[in-house]
Amino acid sequence: KVLEVAGLSLHDPAPWDSSSSSSSSAGAALLEPTVIYVKRVMALHEQVGLKGLVHITGGGMTENIPRVIPKGLGVNISTAAWQVPPMFQWLQQAGNISDAEMRRTFNCGVGMVVVVNPSQVAAAQAADPGLFELGVVVDGSGVSYV
């Protein structure tokens, strides 16, 4: 729907890709396969142990993360923890989509969330330098964006 509103087709160049060397169409970019996380996750689990694992799919972070958090606990996510990729920024702007709807619908560049003990955060980041601290588990419920 966003492409339609923006007057683009799946065959048009991806408007969020400003590199002059890219020949990616909007359709090809939107259908790019997901990252396969299994090897990284298994290695991380062996090294530091995981308390939870969330593949961020339909429902985004807002609906998926609470599924692995015990009752009585919630999550505060730091919106400054990562840079939302240009594709999602463009979709939000072109489709006039609210932050809440983006976070409920898309992964916004966060494809997998691992939950570890607070004492294991540094060890997890050392084991997999691609990891970053997205947020913290807190008393409460649901997901809050701070």
Account of the protein in words:
- By secondary structure, this protein is α+β, with helices and mostly antiparallel strands.
- 34% of the residues lie in helices and 14% in strands.
- It is built from seven helices and five strands; from the N terminus they run H-H-H-E-H-E-H-H-E-H-E-E.
- The strands form two sheets. The protein has a three-stranded mixed beta sheet with strand order 4-2-5. It has a two-stranded antiparallel ribbon with strand order 1-3.
- The longest helix is centred in the first third of the chain and has 11 residues, at 38-48.
- The mean pLDDT is 91.
Please supply descriptive tags for the structure shown above.
146 residues; alpha+beta; 3-stranded mixed beta sheet; 14% strand; globular
Task: Chart the SSEs and their pairings.
Blueprint: H1 2-5, H2 26-30, H3 38-48, E1 52-55, H4 60-64, E2 73-77, H5 86-95, H6 99-105, E3 112-115, H7 121-127, E4 135-139, E5 143-145
Parallel strand pairs: 2-5
Antiparallel strand pairs: 1-3, 2-4
Which strands sit side by side, in order, in the main sheet? 4-2-5
Helix content estimate: 25-40%
CA radius of gyration:
17 Å
Number of helices: 7
Short recap of the structure:
The chain has 146 residues and is α+β, with helices and mostly antiparallel strands.
